Amino acid sequence: MTTQAETGPIIKAGGAAADYVDQRVGVSKFLKKNLNKVFPDHWSFMLGEIALYSFIVLLLSGTFLALFFKPSMTEAVYHGSFIDLNGIKMSEAYASTINISFDIRGGLLMRQVHHWAALMFLAAITVHLLRVFFTGAFRKPREINWLIGNALLTLGILEGFAGYSLPDDLLSGTGLRIAQGIVQGIPVVGTYAAMLLFGGEFPGNDFIPRLYIVHVLLIPGIMLGLITAHLMLVWYQKHTQFPGPGRTEGNVVGYRLFPVYTAKAGGFFFIVFGITVLLSALASINPVWLFGPYTPTQITAGSQPDWYMGWLDGALRMMPNVEFNAWGHTLSLNVLVPSLIVPGILFTVLAIYPFIEQFATGDRREHHLLDRPRNVPTRTALGTMSIAFYMLLWVGGDNDIIATHFDLSINQITWALRVMIFIVPPLVFVFTRRFCLALQRRDREKLLHGYETGTIMRMPSGEFFELHAPVSDEERAVLLAGVTYQPLELDDSPDENGVRPKVSPLDRARAKLSGFYFGEQIEKPTAEELEHSAHHAQELADGYARQLESGGAPSAPSAGDKAH
Amino acid sequence: MSHHSHDLEPAAHGGEHPDNPLAPGLPQHKLRRTDVDPRAAKRAERQISLMFVIGTLAPIVFFFLYVYIPGDKLILIPFIGQTSASNFFLGMTMGVGLFCVGAGAIHWAKKLMPDVEEVAERHPIRGTDEDRATAVAHFNEGVEDSGFGQYKLIRRTLLGALAATPLFAVPLLKDLGPMPGDKLRNTLWDKDIRIVSDVTLNPLKPSDIPFGGLVSCVPENLEKVEEETGNLNARAKVPVVLVRLRPDEIRAQQGPNWDYQGILCYSKICTHVGCPTALYDQKAHTLLCPCHQSTFDLADAGHVIFGPAARSMPQLAITVDSEGYLVARGDFTQPIGPSFWERG
Predict the structure, then answer these.
(1) Is B90 within 8 Å of A32 when comparing Cβ atoms?
(2) Cross-chain residue pair B91–A206, CB shorter than 8 Å
(3) Rg (CA), chain A
(4) I need a surface site. Which of A15, A80, A444, B85 has the fewest CB within 10 A?
(5) Chains A and B: how many Cβ contacts under 8 Å?
(6) How near does any CA of chain B get to the CA of A377, in Å?
(7) Which of A141, A267, A332 sits opposite B103 (nearest CB)?
(8) How high does pLDDT run on average in chain A?
């Protein structure tokens, strides 16, 4: 700890500055409330932080790149220091990307930082979303923040795609060609939309400059606004916390913003930034000079998009070739279903999920204590089912790589995936739900009968038994946490006149959904049960103690009670 | 730890509610070594400062490395291979420097800053009934003052005006691109246009096309057209492949005798979403698109035998001109590439 003499002048100078600002902005009113704001601590709360810090790294490295990148499709002939491409025709966009990589010192580093940060940004968002989903952090009052997060995920995917399309290399140009083919396939408006987007036919000369302004201003501007709103809501609503001793729905337990979280979060920004830079020093990413400039006649085998586009590409690969032609019009379901309909449904269901669950529970209360995933088996199972679905699509996007690496038939892999996409997710759902219920049963056992100590006792009578010890107060607080809902029952039994009351279809749907969610669950032990079991355990112990003293047969308990 | 505001309560530690075991207080706070051992605290202070010193020196080292390592120097790094020396050393210096600043700050927070958890009460998020009533009253007052309810005509015309305003954007955005017209139905291919190699741009004679081989081609006039238009639009539609099969291997074509002595000409642009197909299996005569693995049987009129593409690869009818070079007999008879609504 430093002494007063050392920090004195600093505090004095800071005090003068603070006084100046406070007289003009009134900052003390804000700081009074917020400097000692308490945040709960858990490793999983850092996932959103990684996303935030990656975004800042993206802004910094992206600004550097924008100083040198030329968003133009005008043809140029390359004469830079990368001799492999000397004299080759390419767009100015590609030529300037090669220049950044080879002729701007540190340019390659910044390009790689930008790309790695983008990959980490979307990975962090995805895992953060899973954390929020599985712990029920989206429940009231945080539904709006869930929607903002969903918008950020969608925009992040678009932004990433726009970003890696800008260099106009052979790989990204092929990605754009696919995107254009998808837009062109939209019923009724697709042809016009494609023409407007690309300034005519593919590829035209307009798209890279248009994509550039979308990538550097439009989308990041919207994202910056949404991120600000996201954080302000976290701030205002206070962070959720995991159940534990001393943690209730009415409080927040943790460390103060200043100094602990200022140091931890500020330090973590530097850690995320540092690791991104180290990755960029050690691992090459998107080496566009190897792909060559885009030309519509060429393609590389084994083309793979960035990881977060992989599932969409996989869906395109797995879809059977269904197309309809009637009345002079073409409807390409082989393109529409995997690229627009399935993702559209997925993102919509994801966005409205909190409202679906609230409809099933009918619960309008605020929830600030997080769920343990096992305590909400149906939600958890829906989540793992969706992960399985996503992963299978993702594997589909790698079917050519799998085929060449493992010497398998690509047709068989694709057919296997077409079948598995319908079979595996429901199996994962059933398995997860059973697994959660089993974990709940174990929790109940632990609460009522304690845990097995592994200590085997031998009685004078020769019988063996294992000592059970009650769980600690801390663990009991965790095990007892969680809301148990009863499935809603429809009361449509006839009254005394034999008339059934009218039940609205909405109520019927709610009862069905409620049954789906809560039809099967393990009740948490009640206070009486806990007391009874504690009493029972005491009796058991007393009985054995008496027996040990007397050396005779056990008096109180029957054999079946000894080792639950 | 001396100035708790009214929001903060000192945490209840070590089961302060012994009468209710179901709601225990916070667990007993455990002292860290740095809390009890001044030498450990001193050691932590030195470690933290060391990390900050590295963070201070790193930019200076970075500066010298930037100046002295030439941008084109390559070095061999174990496990990584040949890599740019500048990228490696600049990245390592910057990465380590940033990491140390972060690690120092977190180490400081964990070892020397208070690690006693505190409890803050949550406050209701919604406004009080009084807040709400006042807000509603203000709003109603405003509505009343404006006469929004009273002047029906103003209200309706205002809503009309607001609804109409975005329409300004519609004509403004129209010139983003031309109307489709018949652009998607035509390519540069036409009667007597020579088929030239994609690579050498030389015209080809039937004898240049080997059995079992696949030659990527474009029309002879492509370069000229590209110079005029200054874009790659024509190039995106014209790529074709030439393959030579024995006449008895050809099971079907899209038109009678569209081949020339067993030489078949097909579009190279996949009918799924438009990637150029590239991988030719000469035994099965199939052309595979590397993007989504649609597979076309060139011996059987370009039919799809696997993958997401729904339509056959369009065939181009060919012959030879008076000098014996391969030429097109006309444009494609159907649009090439991905489907679109008006395609039919």
Answers:
(1) no
(2) no
(3) 31
(4) A15
(5) 346
(6) 24
(7) A267
(8) 90
Mean pLDDT of chain B: 90
Give CA separation, B72 vs A110, B69, B82, B94, B234, in Å.
16, 9, 12, 19, 38
Whole-angstrom distance, CA of residue A462 vs CA of residue A448: 27
Is the per-residue pLDDT at A503 higher than 70?
A: yes
Examine the pLDDT at A158 and tell me if it is beyond 90: yes
CA within 13 Å, CB half, A280: 32
Cβ separation B22–A201 shorter than 8 A? no
Q: What is the DSSP letter of B19?
A: T
pLDDT digits over B14-53, tens only? 333 344 555 677 888 889 999 999 999 999 999 999 999 9
Residues 6+ apart with CB under 8 A from A482: A243, A371, A372, A375, A376, A524
Nearest one of A343, A254, A259 to A35, comparing CA atoms: A259
Which chain B positions have a beta carbon within 8 Å of A39's beta carbon? none
Mean pLDDT for the stretch of residues A387-397:
95
Contact B265, B241 (CB under 8 A): yes
Q: Do B290 and A400 make contact, defined as CB atoms within 8 angstroms?
A: yes
Distance CA A313, CA A309 (A): 6
Residue B16: its pLDDT value, please? 39
Furthest-apart CA atoms within chain B: distance in Å:
107
For residues A116 and B46, what is the distance between their CA atoms, to the nearest angstrom?
33
Whether pLDDT at B13 is above 70: no
Residue A294 backbone dihedrals phi, psi, to 5 degrees: -70, 135
Q: Which residues pair with A324 in a beta bridge?
A: A331
Which residues in A lie closer than 8 A to residue B269 (C-beta atoms)?
Answer: 296
Q: What per-residue confidence (pLDDT) applies to B292?
A: 92
Using DSSP, state whether A242 is helix, strand or coil. Answer: coil
The tokens of A458 are what?
Answer: 């031998």
Contact (Cβ atoms closer than 8 angstroms) between residue A468 and residue A451: yes
Which residues of chain B does A301 touch, with a Cβ-Cβ cutoff of 8 Å?
Answer: 278-279, 290
Query: What's the CA gap between A254 and B155, in Å, rounded?
Result: 52
Distance CA A141, CA A237 (A): 8
C-alpha closest to that of A234 among A39, A406, A524, A470: A39
Q: How far apart are CA A373 and CA A436, in angstroms?
A: 8
B109 in reach of chain A (CB within 8 A): yes
Give the 3-state secondary structure of A379-434: HHHHHHHHHHHHHHHHHHCCHHHHHHHHCCCHHHHHHHHHHHHHHHHHHHHHHHHH
Please answer yes or no on whether B122 and A259 come within 8 Å at the CB atom: no
- Residue A272 CA to its chain's centroid (Å): 18
CB A326 within 8 A of CB B313: no
Residue B171, both tokens: 């004509």
Q: What are phi and psi of A394, to 5 degrees?
A: -65, -45
Query: Residue B266 corresponds to which amino acid?
Result: Y
Distance of residue B186 Cα from the nearest chain A Cα, in angstroms: 12
Give the count of beta carbons closer than 10 Å to the beta carbon of residue B329.
Answer: 18
- A51 three-state secondary structure: helix
Residues 6+ apart with CB under 8 A from A55: A121, A223, A227
What is the value of pTM for the model shown? Answer: 0.91
pLDDT in tens, A263-313: 999 999 999 999 999 999 999 999 999 999 999 998 887 778 999 999 999
Report CB contact under 8 Å: B24, A477: yes
